[in-house]
Amino acid sequence: MERDDDLRTWLEARRREKVERKAGVKGGRPLAEILSEYMAGTGLSRRYALKEVHSAWLEATGPAAAHCRILGIRKGVLHVLVDSAACLHELANFRKKEILAGLVSHKGCEKIHDVDFRLGALES
Fold it and tell me: Can you list the domains of the chain with their CATH numbers?
């Protein structure tokens, strides 16, 4: 009985190899795995995530978003560049909790727990 099971297993493996060879598959890795490695290596997944954060940011900040640019997210902290000292003061001191609450309620922003505002010139 054991020999029959071993023989069946061996035959199934040979059939799979033959089908893969005909299809030109070498290594037989799933496409999803290859794409996820590619996206991680090129930074596309990070850019895609920032796109979701950006739309949530626009909704949470309103008109003040015109004075801001998202720099990135690192360790749950959203880093934002602000072009006006007055706007930076308003966002950092008066609206930070409101903005965080608005961000966390959106898909893709659940891991953000703080916002770091920096003063600087926005590139066009």
Answer: 2-41 (no CATH), 43-119 (3.30.300)
Helices of type H across 1-124: 2-23, 31-42, 44-61, 85-93, 96-104
The β-bridge relationship of strands 114-119 and 77-82 is: parallel
Note down pLDDT in tens along the chain; length 124 residues.
567 777 788 888 888 887 777 766 556 677 777 766 766 666 655 555 677 888 888 888 888 888 899 888 888 899 999 998 999 999 999 999 999 998 888 887 888 899 999 999 888 6
| C-alpha torsion sign, points 44, 119, 112, 54 | negative
Dist CA 84 CA 122 (whole Å): 10
